[in-house]
Amino acid sequence: MPDSPLPSRHLRALRQIALLLLSLAVTLLGLMLVTFTISRVVPIDPVLSIVGERATTAQYEAVRLELGLDEPLWRQFGIYVSDVLHGDLGQSIRTKRPVAGEIVRYFPATLELATLATLFGVIVGVPAGVLAATKPGTWVDQVVRIVGLMGYSMPVFWLGLMGLLLFYGVLDWVGGPGQLDAGYQMMLEFDVTRYTGMILIDTAVAGEWGMFANALSHIVLPAGVLGYTSMAYISRMTRSFMMNELSQEYITTARVKGMPERRVIWVHALKNVMVPLITVIALSYAYLLEGSVLTETIFAWPGLGSYITDALFAADMPAVLGGTLVVGVVFVALNMMSDVLYRLVDPRAN
To answer: Which positions ≥6 away from 196 have C-beta within 8 Å?
Structure first.
């Protein structure tokens, strides 16, 4: 009786998981090495940032020893890796609070903004790309390509400023900068329990629907600006993938057999396009999480991008490096997630 193929499949799956975890560990170690190197080469004295310019030599040396800066670089890196693995990203020079705790407070706002923007990009970008691919050279294709080109060409900060001027300043259709109006902001601190840190979810759970509507009016414009750039990228890639897929022989065979065109496009072709499109969407999401600094600054959005920017201007290197490390970890995690989804959607990749 021949051996069952089950053990070999299990062994192959375990090998893939082991390689994935090893790749993750090496990537994160390299990321920590980069952030550690940056902290040592920037022309900012971390000790002087803490003690101030009027500190005595004894105070300076005491803090220097406390930070472990008298140790060899390899040992300093080992201490840094150990601290990061224990969730210790250092202490902010500005606020004197743990950086990890501050990132936990600021990151949900960025996550909420990037998630809404990505949803907009996918919901609009994928159908637009499919329609453009099925009607090449027509006015539909031209409109999708021009709109996508505008999304690539126009700077995000300009789109944000024009959006504020038109939709907030002139038409008064949306809320202004910030997450809430001033009155609701005070209510948020006392009346709403922050379960997730994402204002739409927390206000909905608390049943504060007036505050929810106000928060929605504030987030719709920055999410729309970011979502437009995401939609431009996703629609362009979807169009390219679909045009390649629609030229395949199995599509021609399906049409010859009389299969409805809607089913050929939206079921068979789109199903195969979703395999590479998952990676595109994941990369777009990661870009919005790490690249929303300008948007958060323009809209006074209290997210991680604003936190890193403010820390950079204040020479608060522990906060800058902690935020940078978190962004890198999120980027790596999203790439891993896209790889796993890729394998689930397309078993041939296993």
So the answer is: 108, 202
**pLDDT tens readout for residues 53-98:** 777 778 778 877 877 777 788 888 888 888 888 888 888 888 888 8
**Core vs surface per residue 321-336: b (16+ CB within 10 A) or e:** bbbbbbbbbbbbebbb
Other Cβ atoms closer than 10 A to 196: 13
Q: Give me the sign of the Cα torsion angle 207, 211, 216, 222.
A: negative
pTM above 0.85, yes or no: no
Report the distance separating Cα 129 and Cα 111, nearest Å.
Answer: 26
User: Would you list the DSSP string of 107-121?
Assistant: HHHHHHHHHHHHHHH
In angstroms, rounded to a whole number, what is the distance separating the alpha carbons of residues 144 and 121?
Answer: 13
CA-angle at 87, arms to 82 and 21, nearest 5°: 70
Q: Is 230 in contact with 277 (CB distance < 8 Å)?
A: no
How far apart are the C-alpha atoms of 190 and 286, rounded to whole Å? 33
